[in-house]
Design a protein that fits this description.
Blueprint (H helix, E strand, L loop, with lengths): L2 H10 L18 H22 L4 H6 L4 H4 L2
Bound molecules: zinc ion (ZN).
Length: about 70
């Protein structure tokens, strides 16, 4: 909340674990934290979707993207 905090974030701290980010994994420090963030994001999106359309719940689970395959 201070100017110093903002600077520290811009400098590159992993939003998952707070460690310095690796350039190739930005804004995260590692593929693991990338996956954690992706899972969190998808979980949030998934919850919103199932609230509106409970019938597609199974379909959403099956389509859960694999971060490894996205890289290729
Ligand atoms: Zn991290």
């Amino acid at each position: 909340m201070t100017a110093n905090n903002t600077q520290a974030r811009a400098k590159g701290a992993c939003p998952i674990c707070g460690r310095p980010t690796e350039r190739r994994h930005r804004p995260f420090c590692s593929p693991r934290c990338q996956d954690v963030d992706l899972a969190r994001w998808l979980t949030g999106a998934y919850v919103v979707q199932t609230e509106e359309q409970p019938e597609v719940e199974d379909d959403v689970v099956v389509r859960f993207p694999d971060p490894e395959s996205r890289r290729k």
